[in-house]
Design goal:
By secondary structure, the chain is of the alpha+beta class. It is built from twelve helices and eleven strands. A six-stranded antiparallel β-sheet has the order 2-3-10-5-8-11, with helices on both faces. It is globular and about 60 Å long. 30% of the residues are buried.
Length: 287
């Protein structure tokens, strides 16, 4: 999978601004693949200027078109690309530090609505509003201007975006509230939201904002097993659930569960479930 955050942070050909770990850009997709897997260590917001894309995470998929906005939590997703029209977007990769700082500045000073019943999400569409549309229009003037705005203005514009999101989306506000109370992302949430993607341990460590050694140590302390063993079991149990509840082929099940090699999938599945995937599928069908 491609490290989307790293690509936009290091690729100078994008029309972008950067402040510390936060990156914002105007982006025209240069990749021709119909399906592509990406991940980002930062939350990011996508506002579509033209074209459309489908973003698929572990718990759903969203197709967004011109004028629509999608918020994606730090993590991985598979993107389906359409080629009827050129895809162009505004992207805002928002660092946890900037989110925490902005939330702490307004906490107790303005009334914020928190929807704590909908905190479990990997992505969600943000409803359009006059304030949000006006914000994106104002940012286009910076992206398409000749000079980079001063850092002071850029920071204020990024905080304006976060404040606008807080005022229009109680789910995001509740999420920011929790984020402001922690110094690192939750290991459990990172793993549960991303186990079915074929990421390296180094990638999971980056998503959880930890070094690899710290990630392994914290993981062992929390789950009482190594990340590799946990991932194998979680993916196989997920695959078994798909087999029971769908008509997908074994190769499709393997891919949906984070395995890219079918023989490896069959071997790991048999080690954990006692039978290979085909035999398991037959036993389920007979019942």
């Amino acid at each position: 999978m491609l490290n989307f955050y790293k690509i936009v942070k290091e690729n100078l050909s994008f029309n972008r601004f950067e402040f510390k770990e936060t990156v914002c850009l105007e982006y025209t997709c240069p990749i021709d693949a119909e399906h592509i897997g990406i991940f980002s260590k930062n939350d990011y917001l996508v506002h579509v200027l033209s074209g459309k894309k489908t973003y698929k995470t572990v718990n759903g998929e969203w197709t967004i078109e011109e004028g629509q906005t999608l918020y994606l939590k730090k993590g991985a997703e598979v993107i389906h690309q359409y080629f009827d029209d050129e895809y162009c977007m505004l992207g805002f990769f928002l660092s946890d530090d900037l989110i925490r700082e902005t939330y702490q500045e307004v906490k107790g000073k303005t009334r914020l609505q928190l929807d704590k019943n909908s905190l479990i999400f990997t992505a969600k569409e943000v409803q359009s509003s006059n304030f949000l549309d006006g914000y994106f229009h104002s940012m286009l003037n910076y992206f398409r201007g000749e000079n980079r705005p001063p850092d002071q203005i850029l920071v204020l514009k990024l905080k304006e975006l976060l404040l606008t999101l807080m005022n229009c989306d109680p789910v995001l506000t509740a999420y920011y509230h929790l984020l402001a109370e922690t110094d690192k992302p939750s290991l459990e949430q990172i793993m549960e939201n991303n186990f079915c993607f074929n990421l390296k341990l180094e990638d999971y460590a980056e998503l959880s904002h930890r070094s690899l050694s710290t990630f392994k140590r914290d993981f062992k302390h929390q789950f009482n097993q190594s990340p590799g063993k946990w991932l194998s079991k979680r993916r196989v149990h997920h695959a078994a659930n798909i087999i029971v509840n769908s008509n997908l082929s074994i190769s499709q099940v393997a891919f949906e569960s984070g395995f890219e090699d079918l023989s490896h999938f069959s071997r790991v599945f048999k080690d954990i479930m006692g039978v290979n995937p085909s035999e398991y599928k037959k036993s389920v069908t007979i019942r």
